[in-house]
Amino acid sequence: MKMSAAKRAIIGGLLAVTGVVGATGMAAASPGSPSQVLIDNQGNYTLTYKLIDDNGEVRRAEVAAGQQDQFEPVTGETIEFWIGDERLREYGPLDNATSVKCNTAGSAAAPEAACRDLNN
User: What is the spatial distance between Cα 115 and Cα 62, in angstroms, rounded to a whole number?
Assistant: First the structure.
């Protein structure tokens, strides 16, 4: 089956656009892009996380059930996850050149938390 010149031009144009979009997506994930920590709370509880720096100073925030939060990491900080007054786990120290995703799930009686370095 022969393809008309118009069809070849349309397909060629689509391939070119796809290539540009693909290159743009790759650039967004390059090492020079800002690092992020994403906390995705899929548990049925409000999660409190604390960021503790090298001097012991603490910043804290809460993530409601089914919600997410994100922030830029600061080298040397550690994240602690809390449910009420019970510490669930910690992750760190962070590095400002690393992106991390933390997932939480389960119930307040049986919570789960895991973090992974997206750069490795």
Answer: 17
What is the residue-level pLDDT of the chain in tens, covering all 120 positions? 455 555 455 555 444 433 433 333 333 344 455 799 999 999 999 999 999 999 999 999 999 999 999 999 999 999 999 999 999 999 999 998 989 999 999 999 999 999 999 988
**Sheet of strand 100-106: strand arrangement:** 68-71, 37-41, 100-106, 111-117
Dist. CA 46–CA 22, nearest whole Å: 37
- The conformation of residue 100, written as its DSSP 8-state character, comes to E
The full DSSP string for 27-63 is: HHTSTTSPP-EEEEE-SSS-EEEEEE-TT--EEEEEE
Q: How many CB atoms lie within 10 A of CB 4?
A: 8
CA 91 to chain centre: 14
